[in-house]
Amino acid sequence: MAEAATHGEVHRHPAPTSFIRKYIFSIDHKVIGIQYILLALTAVIIGMLMSVLMRMNLSWPGTNWPILGTLFPTGAPGGVMSGEFYLSLVTMHGTMMVFFVLTTAPQGGFGNYFLPIQIGADDMAFPVLNMLSFWVTFVGFIVLVLAIFAEGNATVGGWFTSLGASWSGGSGTVGPIGGWTGYPPLSALGKVAGPGQGAGVNLWIISIAIFCVGSLLGALNFITTLLNMRTRGMSLMRMPLTCWSWFTTAILALLSFPVLLGGGILLLLDRIAGTSFFIPGGLYVSGAAVPLHTGGSPLLWQHLFWFFGHPEVYIAILPGMGATSHILSTFARKPIFGYRAMVFAIFAIGMLGFFVWGHHMFMSGMSPYSAVAFSILTLSIGVPSAIKTFNWLGTLWGAKIRFTTPMLFAIGFVSLFVAGGITGLVLGQTSLDFFFHDTYFVTAHFHLVMGVASIFGMFAATYFWFPKMFGRMMHEGLGKFHFWITFIGVYAIFIPFHAMGMLGMPRRYSNFGEYEFLKNSHGLVLFVTVAAIITVTVQLVFYFNFIWSIFKGKVANDNPWEATTLEWTIPSPPPHDNFAGVMPTVYHGPYEFSVPGAPNDYIMQTEPEGAVVSAGLGETSGNGGNGHKH
Amino acid sequence: MAATATSTNQAIDAAIGGGGSRGRNGNGFRKNGGGHGDGGGFQYSPARYRVAIWVAIASIVMLFTALTSAYIVRMASADDWTPLRMPKVLWLSTAVILISSVTIEISKRSLKQQRNSRYGLWLTLTAVLGVVFVGSQYAAWRNLAGQGVYMATNPHSSFFYLFTAVHGLHVLGGLLALAYLLVRTRKKRDSVAGELRRVGAAEAASVYWHFLDGLWICLFLLLFFWK
Description:
The complex is a heterodimer. By secondary structure, chain A is an all-alpha fold.
């Protein structure tokens, strides 16, 4: 009733004119999306540089890198990385990548930009909240960068020392050394636990807590927008699969980030308020007794952390799955195979993700009965994953594929998802995990499936939507070069990781030289390092292509890929309120390609039904079963 | 070609007032999910506040579920659990927040009956009760501190301070929302949409306030009556 009362009232938001309202504190979801993407593009540079430093240390331990000696005189005295320095690189690489790259770009970036347009809305449901969620996330990023310097630089560390015992800084690492999982008790004890456990950890926890708040505001906005702002005719089962993946991701974020936030509060209180949530009594660290703490449970943190941590890996990869489905269908010029199965599979993966956190803790001494339950639930995720994979292959089957750069990256995503996912079935079994736990096999698994596959999804999305975002095409030749070197490069890096894991090479060790059984694997380590350096260097081509194309790329028309969804019905780049105040009407499913009898090989979602009905194909749709009768 | 068809279609729809497309939905799957169904332009729908507040509540519930499970695990993890003596003032807190749930309900109904001054009155009363609740929680903290019981004294006191502080922060957020609504009662209303927005916000605030009430009852029972 209430809705009818607003009948006829048309809201057109005027575009802001001042620079600050337009580009900095903008409430336009498109600007905010680009801000998220730029944040991720910045954070990923830090993360990549850290991985290169790690590889250099593993391949040539004890080497003097003069530049490091200048930048971090205490952490790398004389330019030689210490073991703690290496561990802090591991930690910050993981934190930067997981939070500020894999969580921001896919959801905050592309989701923000394209979800409202694809469902035919003029903006997010709460534009001011949207702006806040970006800026809160940005503050989290700044605090994390501060953590690098609080430990790595004596002057910056000195700023925090007066705050209390747990705030000592300048210990000569580049952040905390506990890994991105920050397991207590060591992460909860402060300075006594060694270098890198002072102010850096506090700032690290605070950064993540701030990030949680930003993500929650974002998730709230995504869910409300999708439920409330779909345009006429945009039923749930007519949404592009990208929207389904962003929606599922938002639900995962909404329900998992609060748990990490709760755990983070408890950990911070253990450090600064003297509580004992995670610190057991009678602890001896580095030969000294830890007084004043009793009875805490370090395993409690692991439960809280992984209850968040497992959904988090789906938060990273689901948007990539959505983008891949979308792009595969577009360039195969075929409806996505089994639309409805894809929707249910994406939802099933998301929901199952909440019940498998125990598989990160098989070695924690948990009851074998719980371990078996977690194991079975974990392996069952293989079912929806296989549904998705076979549907992707079914989409490609017999298609006249247009091998554009976004298509190459989408196919690369499928390849990496299979290659990385299959080892999940190995690690999900308790008996095999006994051997592989904490080896490079695990590192190989999650880098391929949640790291590189997600990034490939984002590369595909960038090449695909760039013309819509900036009105110009990215350079195809450079894009293909970028794809092939990166694709071969990541396999050259991570396939040897499996072999290292089988040799028993442990994660997080800064130097393998001391171990007799690893003596023969130095060639492998060196090979990976060379591959990593080449792969990282090639990313410069992507950055160049990105910036160059904004200014000099070939001008794009409204629909350069001949795609069907709503974002391709409006100008490139879209106007401030997307549809110029006119609400679009949707008559078709999202993937109506190569419909027999239709004049073109694609039918826009907004094309009036009459045109198709006259051809006797009114029921044709890209959705599910009936899309494939033909 | 597609672009021309689209704009023509939109023009026609705008002219006849749309609406007709309601029945046509993708593959006959559950009703027409999308859109507001009328007119050619974007409209404001007050339902978004209702959706958003329930979504927000889901995430707050997860936060407290995490902390509650930590409470239960920690209770059993060692034999250093010393139950607090409950500060009597917590009964006052509990009574006050229960009453405030009633007052906000009255104020919301007054707004729906368009009795604006009555709405403002009961809303003010709710806000006052909210402030009294926060004060009463603070008195409980002072009481415990007077007994020499602080955050780090024992696990039960840690959780008590933690739960009351996190809940208190959410109450302060609720008070901000009430203050915003009170300011809005003074503002002149110019459009139907603006008025709907105000009613939507008031409804969302009342849902949130009831939630805070229920949450406190759960925490109160957990902290002092859970064996």
